[in-house]
Design goal:
mainly alpha; Serine Threonine Protein Phosphatase 5, Tetratricopeptide repeat; 73% helix; 0% strand; globular
Length: 341
Protein backbone atom coordinates (compact mmCIF):
# COMPACT_ATOMS: atom_id res chain seq x y z
CA UNK A 1 0.00 0.00 0.00
CA UNK A 2 1.28 3.48 -0.92
CA UNK A 3 0.84 6.06 1.81
CA UNK A 4 0.67 9.78 0.97
CA UNK A 5 3.28 12.28 2.11
CA UNK A 6 2.17 14.14 5.22
CA UNK A 7 0.94 17.64 4.18
CA UNK A 8 3.14 19.29 6.83
CA UNK A 9 6.19 17.53 5.39
CA UNK A 10 5.28 18.55 1.84
CA UNK A 11 4.91 22.17 2.93
CA UNK A 12 8.23 22.13 4.74
CA UNK A 13 9.93 20.63 1.69
CA UNK A 14 8.53 23.37 -0.54
CA UNK A 15 9.58 26.05 1.94
CA UNK A 16 13.13 24.73 2.13
CA UNK A 17 13.41 24.65 -1.66
CA UNK A 18 12.12 28.20 -1.77
CA UNK A 19 14.66 29.35 0.82
CA UNK A 20 17.58 28.10 -1.23
CA UNK A 21 16.04 29.28 -4.49
CA UNK A 22 15.58 32.85 -3.27
CA UNK A 23 18.78 32.91 -1.18
CA UNK A 24 18.24 36.50 0.05
CA UNK A 25 21.03 36.28 2.64
CA UNK A 26 24.33 34.51 3.13
CA UNK A 27 24.52 30.75 2.92
CA UNK A 28 24.91 30.38 6.67
CA UNK A 29 21.68 32.26 7.35
CA UNK A 30 19.78 30.28 4.72
CA UNK A 31 21.08 27.01 6.21
CA UNK A 32 19.94 28.01 9.68
CA UNK A 33 16.53 29.02 8.36
CA UNK A 34 16.18 25.72 6.46
CA UNK A 35 17.27 23.78 9.52
CA UNK A 36 14.69 25.57 11.67
CA UNK A 37 11.98 25.00 9.09
CA UNK A 38 12.60 21.25 9.00
CA UNK A 39 12.60 20.97 12.77
CA UNK A 40 9.20 22.70 12.92
CA UNK A 41 7.57 19.66 11.29
CA UNK A 42 5.63 17.18 13.45
CA UNK A 43 7.75 14.32 14.79
CA UNK A 44 6.49 11.37 12.75
CA UNK A 45 7.13 7.83 13.98
CA UNK A 46 9.84 6.29 11.74
CA UNK A 47 8.87 2.77 12.84
CA UNK A 48 5.45 3.16 11.18
CA UNK A 49 5.53 2.21 7.47
CA UNK A 50 2.77 4.76 6.86
CA UNK A 51 5.33 7.54 7.43
CA UNK A 52 8.02 6.20 5.15
CA UNK A 53 7.09 8.21 2.05
CA UNK A 54 7.18 11.33 4.21
CA UNK A 55 10.57 10.36 5.59
CA UNK A 56 11.89 9.69 2.09
CA UNK A 57 11.22 13.35 1.28
CA UNK A 58 12.65 14.51 4.62
CA UNK A 59 15.79 12.45 4.02
CA UNK A 60 16.36 14.11 0.65
CA UNK A 61 16.16 17.53 2.29
CA UNK A 62 18.39 16.50 5.19
CA UNK A 63 21.09 15.07 2.91
CA UNK A 64 21.17 18.25 0.85
CA UNK A 65 21.13 20.47 3.92
CA UNK A 66 23.97 18.62 5.64
CA UNK A 67 26.18 19.29 2.64
CA UNK A 68 25.38 23.00 2.74
CA UNK A 69 25.84 23.13 6.51
CA UNK A 70 29.38 21.81 6.15
CA UNK A 71 30.12 24.27 3.36
CA UNK A 72 28.83 27.18 5.46
CA UNK A 73 30.46 26.03 8.69
CA UNK A 74 27.07 25.73 10.44
CA UNK A 75 26.94 22.83 12.94
CA UNK A 76 24.51 19.96 12.45
CA UNK A 77 24.68 19.45 16.22
CA UNK A 78 22.54 22.49 17.00
CA UNK A 79 19.80 22.92 18.00
CA UNK A 80 18.78 19.82 19.95
CA UNK A 81 15.56 19.40 17.98
CA UNK A 82 17.59 19.13 14.76
CA UNK A 83 19.65 16.35 16.32
CA UNK A 84 16.39 14.60 17.18
CA UNK A 85 15.21 14.92 13.58
CA UNK A 86 18.46 13.42 12.28
CA UNK A 87 18.16 10.47 14.68
CA UNK A 88 14.59 9.84 13.48
CA UNK A 89 15.81 9.90 9.88
CA UNK A 90 18.44 7.30 10.76
CA UNK A 91 15.75 5.13 12.33
CA UNK A 92 13.69 5.45 9.14
CA UNK A 93 16.63 4.47 6.94
CA UNK A 94 17.11 1.27 8.94
CA UNK A 95 13.41 0.44 9.20
CA UNK A 96 12.75 1.01 5.50
CA UNK A 97 15.81 -1.09 4.58
CA UNK A 98 17.88 1.77 3.24
CA UNK A 99 20.71 1.05 5.62
CA UNK A 100 23.41 1.69 2.99
CA UNK A 101 22.37 5.35 2.95
CA UNK A 102 21.97 5.10 6.73
CA UNK A 103 25.62 4.12 7.15
CA UNK A 104 26.82 7.09 5.09
CA UNK A 105 24.57 9.57 6.86
CA UNK A 106 25.30 8.15 10.33
CA UNK A 107 29.06 8.28 9.71
CA UNK A 108 28.82 11.93 8.75
CA UNK A 109 26.60 12.86 11.70
CA UNK A 110 28.62 10.84 14.23
CA UNK A 111 31.88 12.44 13.10
CA UNK A 112 30.42 15.94 13.34
CA UNK A 113 28.84 15.37 16.75
CA UNK A 114 31.94 13.73 18.19
CA UNK A 115 33.93 16.84 17.27
CA UNK A 116 31.36 19.33 18.56
CA UNK A 117 29.57 17.54 21.41
CA UNK A 118 32.09 14.91 22.46
CA UNK A 119 32.23 11.18 21.88
CA UNK A 120 30.35 10.38 25.10
CA UNK A 121 27.51 12.89 24.67
CA UNK A 122 24.08 11.25 24.82
CA UNK A 123 23.14 12.24 21.28
CA UNK A 124 26.54 11.22 19.89
CA UNK A 125 25.92 7.83 21.45
CA UNK A 126 22.48 7.79 19.81
CA UNK A 127 24.08 8.46 16.42
CA UNK A 128 26.79 5.85 17.05
CA UNK A 129 24.09 3.33 17.89
CA UNK A 130 22.29 4.15 14.66
CA UNK A 131 25.54 3.67 12.72
CA UNK A 132 25.99 0.28 14.38
CA UNK A 133 22.49 -0.96 13.52
CA UNK A 134 22.83 0.15 9.91
CA UNK A 135 26.16 -1.70 9.64
CA UNK A 136 24.47 -4.70 11.26
CA UNK A 137 21.67 -4.56 8.71
CA UNK A 138 24.23 -4.31 5.89
CA UNK A 139 25.62 -7.67 6.98
CA UNK A 140 28.64 -6.19 8.75
CA UNK A 141 28.26 -7.30 12.37
CA UNK A 142 32.04 -7.35 12.85
CA UNK A 143 32.18 -3.60 12.17
CA UNK A 144 29.06 -3.05 14.25
CA UNK A 145 30.27 -4.97 17.30
CA UNK A 146 32.84 -2.43 18.66
CA UNK A 147 30.30 0.37 18.21
CA UNK A 148 27.62 -1.58 20.09
CA UNK A 149 30.18 -2.38 22.79
CA UNK A 150 31.23 1.28 23.10
CA UNK A 151 27.65 2.49 23.44
CA UNK A 152 26.88 -0.21 26.01
CA UNK A 153 29.99 0.57 28.04
CA UNK A 154 29.30 4.31 27.99
CA UNK A 155 25.67 3.90 28.96
CA UNK A 156 26.65 1.63 31.86
CA UNK A 157 29.42 3.94 33.11
CA UNK A 158 27.26 7.06 32.89
CA UNK A 159 23.93 5.73 34.11
CA UNK A 160 24.50 2.26 35.60
CA UNK A 161 23.65 -1.27 34.47
CA UNK A 162 19.93 -0.89 35.21
CA UNK A 163 19.31 2.30 33.25
CA UNK A 164 16.78 1.86 30.42
CA UNK A 165 19.27 3.10 27.81
CA UNK A 166 21.93 0.70 29.12
CA UNK A 167 19.56 -2.24 28.96
CA UNK A 168 18.54 -1.42 25.41
CA UNK A 169 22.22 -1.17 24.48
CA UNK A 170 22.71 -4.58 26.09
CA UNK A 171 19.93 -5.94 23.86
CA UNK A 172 21.71 -4.68 20.78
CA UNK A 173 25.01 -6.14 21.92
CA UNK A 174 23.36 -9.48 22.62
CA UNK A 175 21.78 -9.64 19.17
CA UNK A 176 25.09 -8.76 17.52
CA UNK A 177 26.87 -11.55 19.40
CA UNK A 178 24.21 -13.98 18.17
CA UNK A 179 24.64 -12.77 14.61
CA UNK A 180 28.38 -13.36 14.92
CA UNK A 181 27.77 -16.90 16.16
CA UNK A 182 28.98 -16.25 19.71
CA UNK A 183 25.93 -18.00 21.08
CA UNK A 184 27.20 -18.78 24.57
CA UNK A 185 28.29 -15.20 25.23
CA UNK A 186 25.02 -13.95 23.78
CA UNK A 187 23.04 -16.35 25.96
CA UNK A 188 24.76 -15.14 29.15
CA UNK A 189 24.28 -11.46 28.28
CA UNK A 190 20.68 -11.93 27.12
CA UNK A 191 19.76 -13.94 30.22
CA UNK A 192 21.07 -11.19 32.47
CA UNK A 193 19.30 -8.52 30.42
CA UNK A 194 15.95 -10.33 30.57
CA UNK A 195 16.28 -10.72 34.34
CA UNK A 196 17.06 -7.02 34.83
CA UNK A 197 14.30 -5.87 32.48
CA UNK A 198 11.63 -8.04 34.08
CA UNK A 199 12.60 -6.80 37.53
CA UNK A 200 12.68 -3.13 36.54
CA UNK A 201 9.98 -2.83 33.88
CA UNK A 202 7.81 -5.94 33.98
CA UNK A 203 7.15 -8.42 31.19
CA UNK A 204 5.07 -6.15 28.95
CA UNK A 205 7.74 -3.47 28.44
CA UNK A 206 9.19 -3.10 24.93
CA UNK A 207 12.79 -3.66 26.07
CA UNK A 208 11.83 -6.74 28.09
CA UNK A 209 10.17 -8.25 25.02
CA UNK A 210 13.18 -7.41 22.85
CA UNK A 211 15.52 -9.00 25.40
CA UNK A 212 13.29 -12.11 25.44
CA UNK A 213 13.43 -12.36 21.64
CA UNK A 214 17.21 -12.02 21.77
CA UNK A 215 17.45 -14.72 24.42
CA UNK A 216 15.38 -16.98 22.18
CA UNK A 217 17.75 -16.20 19.30
CA UNK A 218 20.81 -17.22 21.30
CA UNK A 219 19.06 -20.42 22.44
CA UNK A 220 18.19 -21.14 18.82
CA UNK A 221 21.88 -20.74 17.95
CA UNK A 222 22.76 -23.19 20.74
CA UNK A 223 20.32 -25.65 19.08
CA UNK A 224 17.89 -25.52 21.97
CA UNK A 225 15.14 -25.09 19.43
CA UNK A 226 12.14 -26.17 21.48
CA UNK A 227 13.02 -23.80 24.34
CA UNK A 228 13.57 -21.04 21.80
CA UNK A 229 10.13 -21.73 20.29
CA UNK A 230 8.50 -21.41 23.72
CA UNK A 231 10.15 -18.01 24.22
CA UNK A 232 9.30 -16.86 20.69
CA UNK A 233 5.65 -17.70 21.28
CA UNK A 234 5.67 -15.88 24.60
CA UNK A 235 7.29 -12.80 23.04
CA UNK A 236 4.78 -12.88 20.18
CA UNK A 237 1.83 -12.90 22.57
CA UNK A 238 3.28 -9.87 24.33
CA UNK A 239 4.00 -8.11 21.04
CA UNK A 240 0.36 -8.52 20.01
CA UNK A 241 -0.80 -6.94 23.26
CA UNK A 242 1.66 -4.02 23.25
CA UNK A 243 2.22 -3.26 19.55
CA UNK A 244 -0.88 -4.56 17.79
CA UNK A 245 -1.69 -7.50 15.56
CA UNK A 246 -0.06 -6.17 12.40
CA UNK A 247 2.86 -4.05 13.55
CA UNK A 248 6.21 -4.98 12.02
CA UNK A 249 7.44 -5.92 15.49
CA UNK A 250 4.59 -8.42 15.87
CA UNK A 251 5.01 -9.80 12.35
CA UNK A 252 8.75 -10.30 12.88
CA UNK A 253 8.04 -12.09 16.16
CA UNK A 254 5.61 -14.41 14.38
CA UNK A 255 8.18 -15.07 11.65
CA UNK A 256 10.60 -16.36 14.29
CA UNK A 257 7.94 -18.86 15.40
CA UNK A 258 7.65 -20.13 11.82
CA UNK A 259 11.43 -20.57 11.57
CA UNK A 260 11.59 -22.53 14.82
CA UNK A 261 8.66 -24.74 13.78
CA UNK A 262 10.35 -25.62 10.51
CA UNK A 263 13.61 -26.37 12.30
CA UNK A 264 11.67 -28.73 14.58
CA UNK A 265 10.25 -30.39 11.42
CA UNK A 266 6.69 -29.31 12.18
CA UNK A 267 6.34 -28.27 8.57
CA UNK A 268 2.57 -28.02 8.47
CA UNK A 269 2.45 -25.67 11.46
CA UNK A 270 5.22 -23.57 9.91
CA UNK A 271 3.35 -23.48 6.60
CA UNK A 272 0.17 -22.28 8.31
CA UNK A 273 2.01 -19.46 10.06
CA UNK A 274 3.78 -18.32 6.89
CA UNK A 275 0.62 -18.54 4.77
CA UNK A 276 -1.10 -16.23 7.24
CA UNK A 277 1.91 -13.90 7.52
CA UNK A 278 2.54 -13.37 3.82
CA UNK A 279 -0.46 -11.15 2.95
CA UNK A 280 -0.09 -9.27 6.22
CA UNK A 281 3.57 -8.44 5.59
CA UNK A 282 2.71 -7.35 2.06
CA UNK A 283 -0.16 -5.17 3.26
CA UNK A 284 1.88 -3.52 6.01
CA UNK A 285 5.32 -3.13 4.41
CA UNK A 286 4.88 -3.84 0.69
CA UNK A 287 6.02 -6.55 -1.72
CA UNK A 288 9.65 -5.44 -1.70
CA UNK A 289 10.18 -5.52 2.06
CA UNK A 290 12.49 -8.30 3.24
CA UNK A 291 9.81 -9.53 5.65
CA UNK A 292 7.49 -10.19 2.71
CA UNK A 293 10.20 -11.81 0.61
CA UNK A 294 11.56 -13.95 3.43
CA UNK A 295 8.05 -15.14 4.32
CA UNK A 296 7.39 -16.03 0.69
CA UNK A 297 10.64 -18.02 0.54
CA UNK A 298 9.84 -19.80 3.81
CA UNK A 299 6.38 -20.76 2.59
CA UNK A 300 7.84 -22.36 -0.53
CA UNK A 301 10.38 -24.17 1.66
CA UNK A 302 7.61 -25.45 3.96
CA UNK A 303 5.58 -26.79 1.05
CA UNK A 304 8.57 -28.56 -0.45
CA UNK A 305 9.36 -30.13 2.93
CA UNK A 306 5.76 -31.43 2.98
CA UNK A 307 6.23 -32.95 -0.47
CA UNK A 308 3.72 -30.54 -1.99
CA UNK A 309 6.01 -29.66 -4.90
CA UNK A 310 3.41 -28.51 -7.40
CA UNK A 311 1.84 -26.21 -4.84
CA UNK A 312 5.30 -24.91 -3.91
CA UNK A 313 6.04 -24.03 -7.53
CA UNK A 314 2.62 -22.40 -7.85
CA UNK A 315 3.27 -20.29 -4.76
CA UNK A 316 6.71 -19.45 -6.10
CA UNK A 317 4.88 -17.99 -9.08
CA UNK A 318 7.97 -17.20 -11.09
CA UNK A 319 9.05 -14.56 -8.59
CA UNK A 320 12.88 -14.43 -8.51
CA UNK A 321 14.37 -15.97 -5.40
CA UNK A 322 15.33 -13.45 -2.76
CA UNK A 323 19.12 -13.26 -2.77
CA UNK A 324 19.95 -13.10 0.92
CA UNK A 325 22.61 -14.81 2.98
CA UNK A 326 19.97 -15.30 5.68
CA UNK A 327 16.86 -16.47 3.81
CA UNK A 328 15.10 -17.61 6.94
CA UNK A 329 14.98 -14.00 8.08
CA UNK A 330 14.79 -14.93 11.74
CA UNK A 331 17.21 -12.91 13.79
CA UNK A 332 18.60 -9.97 11.85
CA UNK A 333 15.87 -7.64 13.02
CA UNK A 334 16.15 -8.33 16.71
CA UNK A 335 18.52 -5.61 17.85
CA UNK A 336 17.70 -2.33 16.16
CA UNK A 337 13.96 -1.90 15.80
CA UNK A 338 13.46 0.23 18.91
CA UNK A 339 13.42 3.91 19.59
CA UNK A 340 15.81 4.21 22.49
CA UNK A 341 19.18 3.05 21.11
Amino acid sequence: MTHPVDPAVARAHADVLDLFRRNPAGLDEVCRAARDRLTAMPALDPLDPRTWNSYALITTDVQTLLGYLREAGVPSSEPERFRSLLIRVLYYLYESEKSKIGVLLAELVTSDWEARLGKSHADTLNATGRLAVCLYAQGEPKRARPLFAWVHQQRASQFGDDDPATLLAACNMGACLTELGHYRAAFLLNTDTVRRCERLFGKEHETTILATENLAGSLFGLERHRTALTLYRDAHRRRRRTSGEDSLLTLNAEASIAIALHKLEDYEAARAVNADLLPRFERVAGKDHSGTKHTHARLVKNLRALGRYEEAEEVHGGIPKYGSSTPEGGHRALAPRHRGV
